[in-house]
TrEMBL record:
Species assigned in the record: Dyadobacter psychrotolerans
Family per similarity comment: Belongs to the glycosyl hydrolase 39 family.
Gene3D superfamilies registered for this protein in UniProt: Glycosidases, Glycosyl hydrolase domain, family 39
Source organism superkingdom: Bacteria
GO biological process, one term: carbohydrate metabolic process
The keyword Signal is annotated on this UniProt entry: yes
Molecular function as annotated in GO: hydrolase activity, hydrolyzing O-glycosyl compounds
Name recorded for this polypeptide: Beta-xylosidase
Record's signal peptide: 1-30
Keyword Cytoplasm annotated: no
Keyword tags: Glycosidase, Hydrolase, Signal
Active site: 214
Pfam families: Glyco_hydro_39
Length: 571
């Protein structure tokens, strides 16, 4: 069949149009995909003091404190902040020989002689607190757990838990109420009195004394009323020894759970209007309020999926409850444990949902979640003082075993570098324009399951500013880099000095370096030296002086998934 020239011309023209439209469509899609995520920071819009709520840490095993890697890590933690770092540990009154083990610690602070007379021994407690104070750190002095001689059900007392064992096996004789509340109160009195004599009144006034840990679950084998009774005896003892000391509680976990919310409300009702078990008067001393908040990671098709929303709902419910008490609303709140999940000593090899801990997912989660804590506190009008990261180090364990820790065998993990970033933020929090994919309410209510959460936290001091930018997602899947454009407005200088730090697969990441070494089980001294350097916070680019136009500094850069950038600007 013959085809006319006009038909051929029309076909060629149509094909050209189709190709043009296809190319134009692909170009539009590419432009859309590469359009920068705009983050606008306005230094003229201050949002109040940026409290160092990140400068709070804690761990189960108090005897790690004065061990080799424990001392090294505490030194590094103390150096990352310009304000004193507070440290919270368990088992400060537990009976034993002071030998460290997972989920265990002891000090032998209290025993009794053959006649039942108390014997106080502060040697190990002092050794722990000395290690903090020598580094300019402050203890959150936890009153707990029950000495064997005072326990109402002492046997069995010592446990030997290890990862993979039933978690409930740890709740032994130390978790029970005292058989004699007067003796327990006297123990607390003698401890505070000794602390004042050893460290001085001014020093001890700067501490926080608290009672117990998570009394709404297995850590407390008594009733709510028995905990409240013990609180009254403890608070009375603390105040008798040092009237200006600060005492608080109740350290419940999961305020978004019904039982925890009931426990917290019952406690707050008692301290405001209940009859004091010790004094017979109405109410009890309360200088700050404590509770815990945890997320809930899981495996989905072999991929770790975090649940930041679960943690934020716990935090927010606690804020809501405190705000409902007019006389308590402005008291300081310490989130005594604030973490992506609940078991620091449950290793990745036996709990694969914890595979986020070694790499950058832990660091990006930390950056994004801490920023939202500020927003939640502001929305409820409460006084958030600190949020304790329950992570430290585990002596003599396999390299990068996947505990929730800040360092492994003396080598810092990526998450510690987020706290180094936080430590460089000073002054007041400033406005970050909230037209991005997520605000604090969206993350609280639904976590981060759709678009990635690319956002920022920013601060301003007299001659500097800081912007922390993260690219976070609950699903730990590979993804393309996010193009980011930061506009920093309100700069009063014509030139600024910019330092750009980064945590990602290539920078500030000892874990990736270790894997490239072949994941050695016993690294050589040379390899350890390389890993130690890789574990420090690193610059992405050379520091540089940049001209400012009309009071605005514009910076563009790609930000990988689960990465954190930190811009330090000074003039």
């Amino acid at each position: 069949m013959r085809v006319s020239k006009s038909v051929c011309r029309w076909s060629l023209f149509s094909a050209c149009i189709c190709i043009f439209l296809l190319v134009s469509s692909q170009k539009t899609i590419a432009q859309t995909e590469t359009k920068p995520i705009s983050i606008e920071v306005d230094l003229n819009k201050e949002k109040g003091e940026l409290k160092p709520i990140w400068a709070w840490f804690g761990y189960d095993e108090p005897n790690y404190t004065y061990m080799k890697d424990g001392k090294k890590l505490l030194t590094e933690i103390s150096q990352l902040s310009k304000v004193p770092v507070y440290v919270r540990v368990h088992s400060l009154l537990v009976t034993g020989d002071g030998v460290a083990a997972l989920k265990w610690g002891s000090t032998n602070a209290y025993t009794e002689d053959a006649n039942g007379k108390p014997v106080y021994n502060w040697t190990i407690v002092d050794k722990i607190f000395d290690t903090f104070i020598e580094r300019g750190m402050k203890p959150i002095a936890q009153i707990g757990f029950m000495p064997e001689a005072l326990s109402s059900k002492p046997q069995p007392y010592r446990h030997f838990w290890k990862p993979g064992d039933n978690y409930n096996d740890i709740y032994t004789g130390w978790a029970y109420p005292p058989k004699d509340y007067e003796k327990f109160g006297e123990l607390v009195y003698q401890w505070v009195k000794h602390s004042v004599e050893k460290y001085g009144k001014k020093e001890v006034e700067s501490w926080y004394w608290e009672l117990w840990n998570e009394p709404n679950i297995g850590y407390w084998k008594g009733t709510t009323e028995e905990y409240i009774k013990m609180y009254d005896y403890s608070a009375d003892a603390v105040k008798r020894a040092l009237p200006t000391a600060r005492i608080g509680g109740p350290e419940v976990t999961g305020p978004n759970w019904e039982d925890a919310a009931i426990f917290l409300k019952t406690f707050l009702d008692h301290v405001t209007k209940g009859k004091n078990y010790k004094t017979g008067k109405i109410g009890s001393p309360l200088d700050f309020i404590t509770y815990h908040a945890k997320g809930a990671p899981k495996l989905v098709d072999g991929i770790v999926r975090m649940d930041m929303g679960a943690q934020l709902r716990d935090i927010d419910k606690g804020f809501e409850i405190v705000a409902s008490y007019p006389t308590l609303k402005k008291l300081p709140i310490i989130i005594g444990e604030s973490d992506p999940e609940g078991c620091a000593a449950c290793s990745e090899d036996l709990s694969p949902q914890n595979a986020y801990r070694n790499g950058t997912m832990y660091s990006s989660y930390t950056a994004a979640s801490f920023a939202r804590k500020f927003d939640l506190a502001a929305s409820r009008g409460v006084n958030l003082l600190g949020a304790v990261t329950w992570a430290f180090e585990f002596e003599d364990q396999a390299w990068f075993r996947g505990f929730r820790d800040l360092a492994t065998n003396g080598v810092d993990k990526p998450v510690l570098n987020v706290f180094r970033m936080f430590g460089m933020m000073q002054g007041n929090r400033v406005d970050v324009k909230q037209n991005l994919a997520y605000d604090y309410l969206k993350v609280r209510d639904g976590s981060v399951r759709g678009e990635p959460d690319v956002n920022a936290l920013a601060s301003k001091s007299e001659k500097s500013a800081a912007v922390m930018v993260w690219n976070y997602h609950d699903d730990n899947k590979p993804a393309t880099d996010a193009p980011v454009k930061v506009d920093l407005k309100g700069i009063t200088a014509s030139r600024v000095f910019v330092q750009h730090y980064r945590i990602d697969q290539k920078f500030s990441n000892s874990y990736e370096v270790w894997k490239k070494m072949g994941s050695p089980k016993t690294p050589t001294e040379e390899q350890i030296s390389i890993l130690e350097k890789a574990g420090q916070l690193q610059l992405l680019t050379f520091p540089e002086w940049i001209n400012v136009k009309n009071g605005t500094l514009e910076m563009q850069f790609p930000l990988p998934r689960q990465a954190v950038s930190f811009l330090k600007i000074s003039w």
